[in-house]
Amino acid sequence: NSVSPVKFYEYAAQGIPVVSSNIQEMKQYVCEGVRLYETYEELANDVSELCTKPVNTDKLREIASQNTWDMRARQVLEVLNRRAAGLHSLADFRDNGTVSVLSVTFFKYDGTTYFSGGAERYLLELHEVCKEIDFPYRVYQYGEYDWVRFYGDVEVVGLGARKNDVNTFTFPLAVEMKERFSEETAQNGFVNIYSPFYILTQKDQVPSIGISHGISWDSEYTHFT
């Protein structure tokens, strides 16, 4: 039951009747020209009948046409296109050993314009450090929709806000973006960096670093633990 009998499809393509042991993969193809057996007597009878009676080969060739490598590849692609993880595979989009940064902005939320502020320049310098020590590096940010852009050789991924208005910074928005970021990096990420640190709204599954950019924390209204 652990095999796919590729020879069967070759026989079917030639219109040759087939007798097979009763394995799982063959059960779906039982028809006039395809018999399954469990005992020696059943095997002998099926072979005898198929050798003496003419068989309509159209069904056999239909089975073959549905199982060409091209058709199998289409089925795989359909499954991949229905899943976010599948799209990552198609794009060769991996988080294995990656240093991933979540920032509120790097580009505008629509991915069109680079912000050349101190935080953004800091992330560019951090990219240079990661290159020197040979770690993959990727920046994620808040987005109006899902997008991917490059600034030089820095890959920047926009995570579209789906439940909250990305143009109004709120705690629920920060929670949503943190959850989306964690979904992207949780499996094999090396370290996650949050810029600024307060967008890390709950403990991460990946070792994390928070960037304290400026002195926004130096306020009686902004006490963090």
Features:
alpha/beta; 6-stranded mixed sheet; 7 helices; 18% strand
What report would you give on this structure?
This protein has 225 residues and is of the alpha/beta class. Helices cover 35% and strands 18% of the residues. It is built from seven helices and eight strands; from the N terminus they run H-E-E-H-H-H-H-E-H-E-E-E-H-E-E. The strands form two sheets. The protein has a six-stranded mixed sheet with strand order 5-6-4-3-7-8, sandwiched between helices. A two-stranded parallel sheet has the order 1-2. Strand 3, helix 6 and strand 4 form a beta-alpha-beta unit. Helix 1 crosses helix 3 (58-65) and helix 4 crosses helix 5. The longest helix is centred in the middle third of the chain and has 15 residues, at 118-132. 22% of the residues are buried.
SS content category: alpha/beta
Strand/helix succession:
HEEHHHHEHEEEHEE
Which ranges are low-confidence, i.e. pLDDT below 50, for 5 or more consecutive residues? Answer: none
**Terminus-to-terminus distance:** 56 Å
Mean pLDDT: 90
The fraction of residues assigned to DSSP E strands is 15-25%
Helix content: 25-40%
Spatial order of the strands in the main sheet? Answer: 5-6-4-3-7-8
Number of strands: 8
Shape estimate: rod-shaped
**Largest pleated sheet:** 6 strands, mixed
